[in-house]
Sequence to fold (219 residues):
Amino acid sequence: MSQELGKIDKANTEDYKNKRKLFMVPIIFTPFEPNQDAEILITKYWNQVKNQINSLTQSLGIVKHIFHETLSVGGHEGLEQLKNMNSKTYSFVQEQWESGAEIHVTEDLVSLTEMIDLQRIANIPFSSEGVRSKIESWYSEVAAKRFSAIKESIDSKIKSDEIGLLLMSENHNIEFPEDIEVIHVSPPALHDFRRWLDDFIQEQMKMYSQTEENTNKES
Fold:
């Protein structure tokens, strides 16, 4: 079952008693080196996430388990992996870890690396429709294995009346266990970032089209 953060208040916290709970936090990023505007929005987003998580823990209890996409190791080693990746989530996860939450292995490394490689291949223009179809089918199969492994990791660690925290990109297809209450953390800055990113991409596409048009005129 899924729940919006804004719909949780003191009146219905009893509904979560003795249940397994998962705070779902979207990881936001840009497909390019973030500029100053993006950095401001990203910083604002993570500050709001921290505030919302603090509000949730005051009502429902502390976070005991942390799951993070790309993590194939757990504990302090997993935290160091985030630090080495220069992940925007590092300081947030570190705070939760220092408060007593355990960082778990989240990913099956084989499925994760296969999916990354297939994403790279998929960006290559295909001459053959048959090859493109096979790559897409292979990608779907690997993605299903990857998301299933993440689900199993979460399912095996969170016990009755415990709280887990999952940091994951928005475009995922994880089917969470039915007995876990999934609470989606969605601060206002998330919508601000999405709107900014859409506008930025549209502007870049417009500039690219204009450049192409000018080049064609010159030739």
Q: What stands out?
A: The chain is about 55% helix and 15% strand. Residues 2-106+160-218 form one domain. Strands lie at 2-4, 20-27, 65-68, 102-103, 163-169, 180-184.
